[in-house]
Amino acid sequence: MRLPEHFLIGAATAAHQVEGNNIRSDLWAMEHMKHTSFLEPSLDAVDHYHRYEEDIKLLSDAGLNAYRFSIEWARIEPEEGVFDAGAVAYYHDVIACCKKYGVEPFVTLHHFSSPKWLMTKGGWEASTTPADFARYVHYIMEELGSELHYVCTINEANMGIQVAAIAERYKRQMMAQMQAAQTAPRSGDSADGTVQVGINLEKMMENQKATALENMEVFGVEKVENFTSMRTREGDLLIMKAHELARKEIKALYPDIKVGLTLSLHDIQPQAGGEARAASEWDEEFLHYLPYIKEDDFLGVQNYTRSLIGPDGQLPNPEGAELTQMNYEFYPEALEHVLRRVAEDFHGDLYVTENGIATSDDTRRVAFIDAALNGVAACIRDGLPVKSYFHWSLLDNFEWQKGYSMTFGLIAVDRSTQTRHPKESLRFLGSWNR
């Protein structure tokens, strides 16, 4: 089935994961700590900072018509209240490059990484952060807004709540195992695989005391509240306030820009006796955000797999299920299910801003894309306002605490030379736009 004529079909990246040498960010500092939970530092990543034109041209040549990328706050405002005109010029150039190759730039203003100075003020649990974020948004939109049609304020605004939930689940699991004198969780059932971001939860929990001491040396606080930290209820609301202030700034300057945020959403499927728990999970993951996004032009839907929910919560992956490198179940049908469910309560446009798998077998990525896009096409056929599909990711890149071990990309990168090797999945995704 053909997609609509003006449908955006593209791929996504995040600045810290691809640009390299993001030395003013909180994550750069955390990667280089002695008691880090990162497998390895990002360093020069895949050098997208210098090779963005090559990458955008590869995207365009394959037939894709849109590129979702993020602007790095730590580059734009490396010190509080001090803005870097050179960093702004760089993003001007990236946007211009997109247009040179007929690609629609779809910009995200915050994708997990933040300026290091923000952490010294209390990070994403500080009452001052929404205003700090709004100041940055005002500045960058004054500089770049005239060139843009689509802006995501915050990527996966619900990520910290999800991390907090799996941390609590992990603690309960460990307590139960100690009481039963059991060993570690079975392979493939680790809590790490139930959140849609690369984290090393076990290492984080083991290193808490040592990390607190080192945090004081590096950041001046015992607990670093970065964006993907275990979020409190108060912190969750602060993120929504930051989004609302950012939207206000954008609309005041450029009322025609389409503004929204993105959420990490699972296809939550209740199993026998798990109906009430599944409803609670969906409220936590999506419904309670509705009052804060009702004035948005769109919602960015980000989905990778499903969650099976029993009476006591998350169930292990089904016996014999195909798993990705991230321990997600290979389940591309989840995207269609999530789009249909979200559309029941959110009545703006829906943009698929991330969907994909980490795998070394590109034939499985092709199969995943095919199934996912057929689901998107079915939603459109039934009248749902789905306007885009951005595959995660354009490049094999730095997958946060998992380092470079996870391969999500449509393009492989030999990091010893930074040579690009487009995969068949890139061509296949582009074929949907022909």
Automatic annotation (TrEMBL):
Residue numbers annotated as active site: 354
Presence of the UniProt keyword Isomerase in the record: no
Any one cellular-component term (Gene Ontology): cytosol
EC top class named in words: hydrolase
SUPFAM superfamilies (alphabetical): (Trans)glycosidases (SSF51445)
GO MF term set: beta-glucosidase activity
EC numbers on record: 3.2.1.21
PANTHER family: GLYCOSYL HYDROLASE (PTHR10353), LP05116P (PTHR10353:SF36)
Protein name listed in UniProt: beta-glucosidase
Species of origin: Roseburia hominis (strain DSM 16839 / JCM 17582 / NCIMB 14029 / A2-183)
